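>> Question from a student workshop board

For tomorrow's exercise we were told to take the sequence and the ligand below, predict the bound structure, and bring the output to class. My setup keeps failing. Could a helper post the expected result so I can at least see what it should look like? The ligand is 2-keto-D-gluconic acid.
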Amino acid sequence: MAQVGAELAQLVSLGADYNAQLAARWRVLPLFEEDAPEARLKSLAPDVRLLVTSARVGLTADTLQALPRLQAICSWGVGCDALPLEAARARRVVVSNTPDVLSECVADMAWGLLLSGARQIPAGDRYARSGRWVAQGKFPLSTQAWGKRLGILGMGRIGEAIARRGQGFGMTTRYHNRRPRTDLPDYGYEPSLVELARWADFLVVACPGGAATRHLVDEPVLRALGPQGLLVNIARGSVVDESALIPLLQSGAVGGAGLDVFEHEPGVPADLAAIDHVVLMPHAASSTRETAGKMSQLVVDNLNAWQDHQRLLTPVA
Ligand code: 8YV
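>> Workshop helper replied:
Here is what the output should look like for this input. Compare the format with yours to find the bug.
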């Protein structure tokens, strides 16, 4: 495709093949190679029409205001909590994300954490490797997963993919959302998150991040989940009050946790890392070769759709 005179700023790399697709069409500014990408972006501001970022790197409203010709922000990832959506709307800058293509991998990770936490797989691995099996004998009993009660906070596309897997594990599923979903008769709606936590054996957090959901999973919710309960979070660290969670895990008031996300990433609190019955992942739920490629292609496809037809394939509502 012929190069057009547009400027495209990349705050993140999409991988060599996808970066090459962008470079074949636009004059690209690969800002992810810079030390202070947003500062450099501001200095190049007059030329930038298209911007590639990610759910994690995001963009500040301040930088958006410094880009007078910006038309579209195409973000790699589904989460929008780091994107300046209101400022973009006010400026008529369109925004896309990469929904759907990552839902199944994120749901796999939720289940990986659920099973790892319930059956104590990482602790068992440490036990077998370290020789404690020989020295101390049989590994302690863990918790059955099959046939239990699955509570889901956030029944969106990812929540649904998690619930579907629950059917294969003979689980009963209930969920808490802003509104009940009339299209999902197999799963019960629970209007109170505390009641959902009280009912559930496993509480999986799958709602969006941002101010509206900050610390939704607070001390009362965690106490309701209780000493036999397991918390799984593949959404955003901000949804769970980590300072409430850690002492409750330490005292056994919450049974365990499987966490892919944290309040202050990439930091993991040392107190949390010291607890044996938690399973931790470095925010990698969507990070498989297959899904990362699909996400990158969707970013490229959104940019092409905007360039050719002034419309995005997966606009953020
Ligand atoms: C992404 C995520 O891999 O899509 C999201 O919102 O949290 C992850 O799946 C990552 O955040 C992209 O930057």
